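Input sequence (128 aa), recorded before submission:
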Amino acid sequence: MSHYHAVVWIDHREAKVFHFSPTEVEKLVLHPDRPTKHIHHKSGSIGSGHTTADHEFLHAVAQSFADAGAVLITGAGSAKNELVAHVEHHDPKLKALIKGVETVDHPTDGQLVAHARKYFNAEDRMTP
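Predicted structure, token format:
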């Protein structure tokens, strides 16, 4: 089944990808091979205390929405921005699919899809 719209909710432990129409939803959950743990930066230590992006995970997430016509990227932290940066650098043809990037805490699946439907309803009316 193919749907035009997709919404992604991502953090460093998982990505939920929903392809949807006004009446149907397909869900895909992706997990990185090496999930990151929260790192606390200690004063006097070398390095930023941040982990590097998992490019294999980000690539899998990007490929999961490659067949959509329009995508909304969401998440609570920096992973959503890392996904967009990954797409811009490694999959530039997919950048045109990304119609928005929003900070969204930890919604239920139903809340996320309802938010995305509302977002695209407004977005679609503004697109010629």
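Checked by second reader. The first strand starts at residue 5 and ends at 10.
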